[in-house]
Write a structure and sequence with these properties.
The protein has about 250 residues and is mainly alpha-helical. It contains ten helices and two strands, in the order H-H-H-E-E-H-H-H-H-H-H-H. It has one domain.
């Protein structure tokens, strides 16, 4: 196999991973720059790929199948890595619902769509932590190591992989609940307080009167516990390289 074909196979896996990974897959990130980044990474990674993992003497149809498999491997690894940011979106949805700011949607420049204020805030928090912790370097290192776990053209689906993806999906809700727990707690206390007030003053419109207190207390608690939320988010983000390697191991038929 020529060096150009080897580079192309690595480029497809890396490019597919960058297509679905957040921040780098944002519409604000130029497509040309994304393709150039994938090409440079493939240029650096291709010489380090173990020779025994490169298939030889492929016909046109076999080569096309290998190309599609490499794209699928990159998409699966990128989707699993993206689940960390899905946890942030779930956390922001819970906070916005409890505080009562879901109706106040704004334009999110990272996704070019309307989203809640907490959604934009948590997404930017996750992106800042991702780059400040140098996790983009660890993610590229995991991509390079994945060739030692699943060879080029040797990926295959399996039930353990299905169970792993389901497990990672379930952890999205767990992580979102943990990060939004302080706001959930203060919202519960406000609900209990106004429920008791409604018993003492039946004529009071508790539903409308609690809005201002819920928003003020929610924003205050969210700001005071932002450091704790960032620690939980950082712990969840640090698992991305290990998740990529685990998925690559499960993609290997051996």
């Amino acid at each position: 196999m020529t060096e150009l074909t080897q580079w192309l196979l690595v480029f497809l896996r890396c490019g597919a991973l960058l297509v679905v990974f957040p921040v780098l897959s944002s519409p604000q990130f130029p497509v040309r720059l994304r393709v150039s980044l994938a090409a440079v990474v493939a240029f650096l990674v291709a010489p380090t790929v173990p020779p025994q993992t490169i298939p030889h003497d492929l016909e046109i149809l076999g080569l096309v199948m290998v190309l599609f498999r490499e794209i699928a491997v990159g998409l699966v690894m990128g989707s699993v890595a993206r689940m960390a940011f899905h946890a942030f979106e779930f956390c922001s949805a819970i906070i916005g619902m409890e505080v009562g700011l879901n109706a106040a949607a704004s334009f999110n420049p990272m996704s070019e769509s309307r989203t809640e204020a907490f959604g934009t805030m948590t997404f930017l928090l996750g992106a800042m932590l991702f780059f400040s912790l140098d996790l983009h370097h660890y993610m590229l290192a995991a991509l390079q190591r994945s060739y030692g776990l699943v060879s080029v053209g040797g990926a295959g689906l399996s039930m353990p992989l299905f169970y792993e993806v389901m497990h990672r999906t379930a952890q999205i809700f767990q992580a979102g609940l943990i990060m939004s727990a302080p706001v959930l707690a203060i919202s519960f206390l406000i609900s209990i307080t106004f429920a008791l007030i409604s018993r003492a003053v039946p004529s009071m419109n508790v539903f409308s009167e609690s809005f201002s207190f819920r928003i003020l207390a929610g924003l205050l608690v969210f700001g005071m516990t932002l450091n704790l939320t960032a620690q939980h988010a950082a712990n969840y983000l640090r698992r991305i390289p290990d998740d990529i390697l685990r998925v690559a191991r499960l993609l290997s038929p051996g």
